[in-house]
Amino acid sequence: MAQKRVLSGIRATGRLHIGNYLGAVKGMLALQDNPEYETFYMVADLHTLTTPYDAKTLKDSVREVVLDYLAAGLDPEKSVIFVQSQVPEHVELAYLFSTVVTIARMQHLPTYKDKVKQYPQANSMALLHYPVLMAADILTYKADSVPVGIDQEPHLEIAREIAGKMNEAYGLSFPEPKRFTIKGSEYIPSLKGEGKMSKTVEGSYINLTDDLASIRQALAGAPTDSGKGEKVPAEGGVANLLKLVGLFLGETKKKDYEEAYIGEGIKYSELKGELAEAIFAELKPLQEKRKVFENDSSLVDRILKEGAVKAGKVAKETLAETKKAMGLI
Question: Terminus of the chain with fewer CB atoms < 10 Å: N or C?
């Protein structure tokens, strides 16, 4: 049986945090180690350009994500690891796909509207075009599965629509990609008490490279209450802390704290201290592995170069097939 292909990527906006790790990278690892799948993982530097960024530090940001990928366990012997802009076929294919998508469809996407509210001064064509480029990223490799969070579902719907329209109009055979999920990967809460963990919200996240002191400091700022009540909060700072307890200390420990909340009460200094230790214990092996790659830049360069060649080979085939079907060659 032929392997199913998977494509996923993370924008180059700096080092990855535990939300990226639990919400996306662990899903990537699960697929990488499954022999049923052929996995392509990129750093989405072109997508980074859709919101304000620093051109002087972009290359460094790309490198940080690559190092975090490798430290977390993405293996160039098992997965194709590459940088999006180093495979230019993505952009050309995105333009071809844009011929079957209306401006109105893009403007009505909730993700587009949210970004415009967040960055009203950066309402660019690139931002509007983001889901089309994402569709090209995925369909270039005819990927069946995409390990992303639930917030990306509107973009996957666009990818499915584009695949269907291209297949119907030109007799192509693009798959309609589905979202791949693993337990605990749906939504990683912000330390601020609302929303998800995000690199664009200072104080909401813990980086994979943070030391124990930094983790303790980040958790210390998480909002709490008196530690006692008739009912365990379903949302807000306490609920978010308890979810992290479940992820890093286990569901049994989470249940213990929930019972304490409606009983004798929780001492948040103890909870946050225990949680900080557990988070650091999981991150420490990643940090040690990261240092190996940090100290061998030529190895990282070689991994990215080989990844771009492997990805480019597939991308060139898909682009040629599409151009031929559209009458361009």
Answer: N
Total domain count, the chain: 2
Residues 222 and 307 in one domain: no
Report the b/e string of 193-223 with b at 16+ CB within 10 A.
beebbbbeeeebbbbbbbeeeebbebbeebe
In angstroms, the CA 42 to CA 65 distance is 9
Give 153-200 pLDDT, tens digit per residue.
899 999 999 999 999 999 999 999 988 775 545 578 899 988 888 887
| pTM for this prediction | 0.90
Tokens for 153? 């579902």
The residues facing 61 across adjacent strands are: none
Catalytic residues, by residue number, are 115, 196, 199
One domain, residues 66 and 149: yes
Residue-wise pLDDT for 76-106, tens only, equals 999 999 999 999 999 999 999 999 999 999 9
Pairing state between β 37-44 and 79-83: parallel
Q: Which domain holds residue 181?
A: 4-186+297-325
